[in-house]
Amino acid sequence: MAEIEKVIVCEKLTKRFGDFIATNEISFEVKKGEIFGFLGANGAGKTTAMRMLCGLSAPSSGSAAIAGYDIYKEPEQIKRNVGYMSQKFSLYEDLTVMENIRFFGGIYGLTNQQIDSKTKELITTLGLENETKKLVGSLPLGWKQKLSFSVAVLHEPKIVFLDEPTGGVDPVTRRQFWNLIYAAADRGITVFVTTHYMDEAEYCNRISIMVDGKIEVLDTPGNLKKQFNAESMDEVFYQLARSAKRGD
Amino acid sequence: MRTLRFLLQKEFRQIFRNRAIVTLIFVMPVMQFLVMPLAADYEVRNINLAVVDNDHSPYSQKLISKVIASGYFKLTGYNDSYKDAFKLIEADKADLILEIPHGFERNLIREDKQKLFLAVNAINGTKANLGGAYLGSIIGDFNADIRMQLVQQPRFSQFPVIEIVASNWFNPVLNYKVFIVPGILAILVTMIGGFLAALNIVKEKEIGTIEQINVTPIKKHIFILGKLIPFWVLANIVFTIGLILARLIYGIVPIGSLLVLYIFIAIYLLTVLGFGLLVSTFCDTQQQAMFIMFFFMMIFILLGGLFTSIDSMPDWAKLITRFNPVRYMIEVMRMVILKGSGFRDILPHLAAVSAMAVFLNGWAVLNYKKTN
Fold it and tell me: Given an 8 Å threshold on Cβ–Cβ distance, is B6 in contact with A88?
């Protein structure tokens, strides 16, 4: 293959809420199997952009193709091929671990056999053998987030969108979480992730940094550090975010 | 179809895992059903009567005991002057004053004619009106008795007397409960179904789980069906409990066919649940949904013909009732349960609620947006 498959192609994608332009003409491409870090200060427009890409929010203008499907014409096809983990924990807290997994497996149209094998695999990977019958609401946050991620990739999507998946999670669990991300990427799942942790940004293949609704830079962490003559991603981020006019 | 099965499984699990909701769904209607028909009663009893007896004669005593014996009145004052009796009305201790004039017995016998004075406290209009009417008819009856005793019946009475004998069809003894119980059951089913459906989707919006559903390729109508069916089943169960209670407690056995009743309920519930779901697609919080549902439920109930007759409403209100599903439900309940109406008789009602069901559910599916 001459060129690696592009799973996200975004062209001047814009979202307006009245006068406010949340996401302003962003254009970028993400390749298959890539871990793409989507950075930016609070209110920079990351979540809005991500919601458009996974079909939760209709763009005001611009175009995008996700997994080869047009964002306007084939939103349901896109949904078949993406997974999404929102900022807010959104599995059913009043269902058990097992029930949540089976429910989402069923909704994505997995066969009973697939659901059984996936469930088993997932529970062993996460080490949740003793928690399968516990209500999800009773799990600690770190476990919830890992479970949430595993459910988002249960149907083996082409792309998984993660919106601040490790917010409020302890460093050890964050490391475990990133191991899950790497494992998914190894299986060929493209990972599109937002984060505020700059050490996590270093784990990404490429990152973009959004400022006030626009993508200011997009490159590998190494190149960015060179470009900004910085020691760490922290410094790069700081230099860019300082110019932001939008606050929290 | 398989997706629907997963949705239903999830909904039922969530419903039955929530103890408070299960209790509310089953215990509340039972309690209401036990209490409401006994309390919400049109029949006026315990009318407080003050008597001013200026005559103190055997006849006046006889009249008073006849009034009390009717069971509708409670003698709260036996006064010698109208002034004292009126004080009772002012103190809210009496609703009616019956004044028996001096010389009541004598005039009645000698002159065959006597006037009585009746004063009514009209603040509680219904009570006063009905009380006055009851008292009037009791006195009329008393009058007839006396004449029978005193006057030798001539071969042909010189006064033509027409007596009207009414026979009450479908509710022979004019038992108010027979009339109100089917209506209350209709309201109960409506409230439970409507509110549960309205709050459910909004709750998912509030806690954010709907996002996780919206990123899946699930079809909108399947999702709505997954919300509709569980509450449809629950409302049917509540309805059945209600029918059983009506039989056990109030002895009300549907005269018409149960099948007809259940066919109508099946469609009617789709209308009510569709309405609830539609409301939920417009709201972001459970609070909003609750207020909107409350607003409409009040209209539905007050313009539903449960407490007041639709026939006596002004034309504009009658027009509104034609778009009120509760009205059809209450009518059908009374028709089938009390009158024994058959499938043909309720066809117009069935057509009306079917149209509303299609309209409301269609709108709910359209208005539920996976992408916004």
Answer: no
Structure token pair of residue A204: 């990404």
* Architecture of the domain whose range is A6-241: 3-Layer(aba) Sandwich (3.40)
| Average pLDDT, integer, range B93-121 | 80
Does residue A247 register a pLDDT over 60?
no
**How far does the CA of residue A137 sit from the closest CA of chain B (Å)?**
12
Interchain CB contact of B216 with A (< 8 Å): yes
Instruction: Report CB contact under 8 Å: A107, B216.
Output: yes
CA–CA separation, B281 and B372 (whole Å): 12
CA distance A80 to chain B (A): 5
- Using alpha carbons, select from B234, B280, B275, B284 the residue that is nearest to residue B361: B275
Tokens 């203008």 map to which residue? Answer: A61
Question: Is B209–A90 a contact, with Cβ atoms under 8 angstroms apart?
Answer: yes
Q: Under CATH, domain B47-150 is a member of which superfamily? A: abc type-2 transporter like domain (3.40.1710.10)
- Is the Cβ pair B211, A108 closer than 8 Å? no
Q: Give the DSSP letter string of B233-298.
A: HHHHHHHHHHHHHHHHHH----SS-HHHHHHHHHHHHHHHHHHHHHHHHH-SSHHHHHHHHHHHHH
List pLDDT tens digits, range B165-221.
767 676 665 677 777 888 888 988 999 999 999 999 999 999 999 999 999 999 999
- Reply yes or no on whether the pLDDT at A27 is more than 50: yes
Cα gap B127→B120, rounded to integer Å: 10
Residues of A in contact with B3 (CB under 8 A): 106-107, 109
Quick one: tokens of A4?
A: 């690696």
pLDDT at A114 over 90: yes
Q: What is the DSSP letter of B98?
A: E
Candidate from B6, B13, B207 with C-beta closest to A107 = B6
Query: Band of the pLDDT at A2, cuts 50, 70, 90?
Result: very low
- In chain A, which residues have their Cβ closer than 8 Å to the Cβ of B203? none
Write down the domain spans for chain B: 2-40+173-367, 47-150
The model scores a pTM over 0.90: no
Helix (H), strand (E) at residue B54? none
Instruction: For chain A, say whether B81 makes contact (Cβ under 8 Å).
Output: no
CB–CB of B370 and A55 under 8 A? yes
What per-residue confidence (pLDDT) applies to A245?
Answer: 74
Distance (Å) from the alpha carbon of A90 to chain B's nearest alpha carbon: 4
- pLDDT at residue B160 above 60? no
Separation CA B324–CA B190 (nearest Å): 12
